[in-house]
Design goal:
- With 242 residues, the chain is an all-alpha fold.
- It has 9 helices and no strands.
- The protein has one domain: Up-down Bundle (Rhopdopsin 7-helix transmembrane proteins), CATH 1.20.1070.
- Helix 1 runs antiparallel to helix 9 and helix 2 packs parallel to helix 6.
- The two termini are 18 Å apart.
- Keywords: Cell membrane, G-protein coupled receptor, Membrane, Olfaction, Receptor, Sensory transduction, Signal, Transducer, Transmembrane, Transmembrane helix.
Length: 242
């Protein structure tokens, strides 16, 4: 844990473990007991923890992209730019951003009166499905939350893409074909997982209600809630060791 990459992998594994433990065990228990019940407080806690952990993870993926950029493009300055104190501060910033982001969404979602029943058509308490139960919407507040969400996700995604573009440019200058292949195989899977997470999340939250269907919503939710935490340990541990 004295190297930045391993420190960030530890933080990522904790976030993955927390996010998948927030939704899957409850869904499995409900399936075994043939019930779909969850308390109001439990639903709010589940939504807050899920959004908090997933937002913090996306911020951490952005930091890890920067870590790889410095390691490949500025190797002589790696120890200076990513010292132990800088790593702790960046990880704390990722967790703090996730906490504030989740607090904003949870407060906005559960401040609305729910008058269209109490059945969430999903295997966990997800924001779009809870908002379907609301009969009161504030356009100004919804726009504000949407702007904050797009700003955070778009900023992180652009930073990740720019980091990997610089990495690919550096990799293509490697004279050895085997070296280029190894570097690309290490960089492409993390970028694919981050893209899958962001694209499915934005599709789930921004798609028109007219094209929504329960099977489609379930598949999309699994793609951003279950798949990334499940495959991240394989990609970021085994591939990074290579």
């Amino acid at each position: 844990l004295h190297t930045p990459m391993c420190f960030f992998l530890l933080s990522l594994s904790l976030l993955d473990l927390g996010s998948i433990s927030t939704t899957v065990p409850k869904a499995m228990a409900n399936s075994l007991w043939d019930t779909r019940a969850i308390s109001y407080a439990g639903c709010a806690a589940q939504l807050f923890l899920f959004v908090f952990l997933m937002a913090a993870e996306f911020c951490l993926l952005t930091i890890m992209a920067y870590d790889r950029y410095v390691a490949i493009c500025k190797p002589l300055r790696y120890g200076t730019l990513l010292g132990s104190r800088a790593c702790v501060h960046m990880a704390a910033a990722a967790w703090g951003t996730g906490f504030l982001y989740a607090l904003l969404h949870t407060a906005n979602t559960f401040s609305l009166p729910l008058c269209n029943g109490n059945a969430v058509d999903q295997f966990f308490c997800d924001i779009p499905h809870i908002l379907k139960l609301s009969c009161a919407h504030s356009c100004l507040r919804d726009v504000g939350v949407l702007v904050v969400s797009i700003l955070v996700t778009f900023t992180c995604f652009v930073f990740i893409v720019l980091s990997y573009v610089q990495i690919f440019r550096a990799v293509l200058r490697i004279p050895s074909e085997q070296g280029r292949h190894k570097a690309l195989s290490t960089c492409l899977p993390p970028l694919a997982v981050a893209s899958l997470f962001l694209s499915t999340t934005m599709f789930a939250h921004l798609k028109p209600p007219s094209i929504s269907s329960p099977p489609q919503d379930l598949v999309v939710a699994v793609l951003y809630a279950v798949v990334p935490p499940a495959v991240n340990p394989l990609i970021y541990s085994l591939r990074s060791m290579e």
